[in-house]
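INFO  loader      accepted 1 record
INFO  loader      residues=449
INFO  predictor   begin
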Amino acid sequence: MTPKLLSWLENPPPGIALVDGSTGRTWTYVELAAAVMSTVDMLAAKRKSVVACLCRPEPGTAIGYLAALAAGHAVLMLDAATDAAVLDRLIGAYEADFVLDRDRVERRPSTGRPVDEGLAVLLGTSGSTGTLKYVRLSQDNIDANARQIVEVLGIDAGERAVQSLPLHYSYGLSVLNSHLLAGAAVVFPGTSLLRPKFWDVMRDNACTSLAGVPYMYTMLRRIGFERISLPDLRTLTQAGGRMAPDEVLRFGRLAADRGGRLVVMYGQTEATARIACVPPERVLDKPDRIGLPVPQGDLSLAADGELIYRGPNVMLGYAEGRADLSAGDVNRGTLATGDLAEVDDEGYYTIVGRKKRVAKLAGQRVNLDELEALLAPHGPVAAVEVAGELVLARAGGTAGSDLTRHVRELVGVPSRFIHVRDVGELPRTSSGKTDYAALTATLQEGSQA
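INFO  predictor   done
INFO  writer      dumping tokens
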């Protein structure tokens, strides 16, 4: 029988499932199953419901999420740190029947509007704080992608992953899902990787893997990661956006020198999580690639260069409120990623930009992602189009006049269409990506002041 995420509830494997690094408390799989089923009892309902799960970086959130799935409900994963008014708006838009926060369950008046029986998880599209637009994922999507990640990374019961990414973010949730499917352990550090306690927790719990987005790897470099002793760490994974090739080389060599591996991956929330990877043995000679599709997945290019993914982990569709939750599978296993890509003669794909991250300036089309990659050596820079002009938000680095001149030479656009704005630091989403929506809003306000 094909393994499923929750199959361990009936027959828990031996060993530790969850660890709370801040308190030292552990849950064996037997204890986790009991905790999950206890919460299931609090979610009893006559029909399939929506459970709003307020996500915190702690085991209680994992238990609540698993309980909502075990109860057969659809789980709306919300960042508990989001502004209270925004949370209320989201909970209201999806007419949540339950609000789950740690071990507290609030039962709300139900509208009774139907929820598709196949729907299991609702995840926000990345980079959009408080958006109503959520990705609809089925239990089959969750199970399929967890199996794909287990296979491609070779996860077994001996692994211990540090939960370094939030559970309301698809990459972070996939770390939890894949390790539980394999009977492995997940360690919640209870603190940021910028604090010494994080690394103490990893050492004390013999963590074997660390997942990060590009911004996190930048932080690792700055804090001197290469000097931190982590004798059990074997695997670094990177996804959540393009990491600069020189950064890939840096961490790929560091991992290899320590007898481990760096696995560069690519994914989208719309495909549950990760959908491609560069085999570790090819990272150093293909540092600019996203790699090959995961097992049971397929990548191809449309006529305009857009990357197309097909696989059992492709979402059912989008939702913007409760009315959309009765819709079935509108994608049928095919996802147009919105990314522009190229493929080499060995079948390795490279992302070269976004279809919607293309500005039209003075009659010239400018790929903003490609421009950012070219400007990376000049310091942290984000490129956005505001009112038909190119605005470069920088957090230190090359002088503004030099940057303007360099960009003019690169894209062939007159200087009057290029503006450099200094910012303290680039705004980030909770998953560490550049928050272009927030940045654009800030720059627009500044231009009107």
